[in-house]
Amino acid sequence: MLLRTLFTSPCRASPCRMIRAIFPSYYASSYSQLADLGKPKDKHHHDLASFRAYAESTGLDPTSTLYRGTVYEYIASNALYHKNMHLIRTGGKSDRGIDLRGEWHIPLPPAILPTPPNLDSSSSPPESPITRTKAIRIIIQCKGHTTVPLGPNIVRELSGTLACELSTTIGFLASMYPCTNGTRNAIRFIQKPMGYVCISNKGVVKQLVWNRLASELLGSGIGVGVRYLNSEVGETNVDGELEQEVVLMFNGAVVDGLLSRGLEVERRPSKKVRKLMQKEASKKASKKSGKKVSKKESI
Strand order of the sheet with strand 222-228? Predict the structure, then answer.
C-alpha cells in the first residue's frame, strides 16, 4: 500500500509534498493548533546555563562548532522571547536546517470603546489597551558559528526549507552580522515570507527586517524602532557609541514583552489558511469517493 501511494501520488514530483501527503502528522499539526511546537531538541539541557553545565561535564570543546552554535541558539531564543517570539530548539538528522521553531505573537488592533455622552462628537474615542494577540508560525535558522556575513545563497537555502512548510510560515535567518545589501535584496524579492534578525553575542537584537509577504501575514501597524541601552549610564560599544537595540512597535507604541503578560492568543486560521484547509479537505473527499467507485467496479 505504501509503495502504491509513492508511485501513484499526484504530488510525486515534489519529495516534500509527497512525504507530507503520506505522513501529514510528520510535517505539521492541525492549522488551528499552532501552540503545539513539538518536542525540544535535547533532553540534557533546556537553556544556556544548563547547556554550559552539560558541556563542562561532558568535556565539550568551547571552540567547537557544536558548542558555539548551540550557545547562539539559546541566546537568540532568549533575545527573541522579549520580541514576543515563543521558540523551542528543534532539529536532528532531518531538521532541514531549522534550529528554532515556534510562534510570533503579534498584537491585534484594540477595540474602540463607544463615545461617552459627555464627550464632544469631534473628539476621538479612547482606545482600550492591547488584550489580544495572534500567533504566526515561524522558523529560524541560526548562523552563530559563521565568521563572515551571510550571503544570498543562505536565503535560497531557507526558501527551499519554507517550501516544505505551510505557506503562512515566516522564515528568519539569525546572525551576529548585520544584513548585507545583497542578502536584503534576496529576501526582498524571494517569493516566500522571510526576514532577517541580527543578534549580538550579548543577546541584543540589533536588526529586524522582513519582506512584503511576511508583512501581509503580520498585518498593518507592526514595525520596529530603535532605542539606546543604558543611555543614562552612558555605556558604549567598542566604537565609543551608545549601544542600540531594536524594539517591536505597533501603531507607534513599543510592544516588547507581551508574552509575559499572559494575553489572550487568537489562533483562528486566516483566510489563506482556511483556503488551504478547504483544498486539502476537497482532495481527501475526492480520494475517498474515487476509492468507493473503484470498489464498486471491482464488485
Answer: 222-228, 244-250, 253-254
What span, in angstroms and rounded, lies between the C-alpha atoms of 293 and 290? 5
C-alpha span between 42 and 67 (Å, rounded): 13
Residue-level pLDDT, tens digit, the chain, 299 residues:
444 444 443 444 444 444 444 444 333 333 334 445 556 667 788 899 999 999 999 999 999 999 999 999 999 999 999 999 999 998 655 567 899 999 999 999 876 544 455 545 455 444 448 889 999 999 999 998 788 899 999 999 999 999 999 899 999 999 999 999 999 999 999 999 999 999 999 999 999 999 999 999 999 999 999 998 865 544 556 566 678 999 999 999 999 999 999 888 987 665 666 677 777 778 878 877 766 555 555 55
CA angle 107–217–184, rounded 5-degree value: 110
Please, what sign has the CA dihedral across residues 17, 19, 23, 28?
negative
Q: What is the model's pTM?
A: 0.73
Q: All 3 cell numbers of residue 284? A: 481527501
Tell me the CA distances in angstroms from 100 to 31, 262, 299, one per residue in order.
19, 22, 52
Per the listing, cell 479612547 goes with 126
DSSP state of 183: H
Coil, strand or helix: which one is 105? strand
Of 131, 127, 97, residue with least CA distance to 115: 127
Q: Beta-carbon neighbour count of residue 81 at 10 Å?
A: 16
Of the candidates 169, 141, 168, the residue with the CA atom closest to the CA atom of residue 153: 141
Residue 245 and residue 203: Cα distance in Å, rounded?
A: 10
For residues 77 and 89, the answer to whether their CB atoms sit within 8 Å is: yes
Q: Which cell is 176 given?
A: 551576529
Using only the alpha carbons of the chain, give its radius of gyration: 23
Nearest to 67 by CA among 54, 82, 83, 84: 54
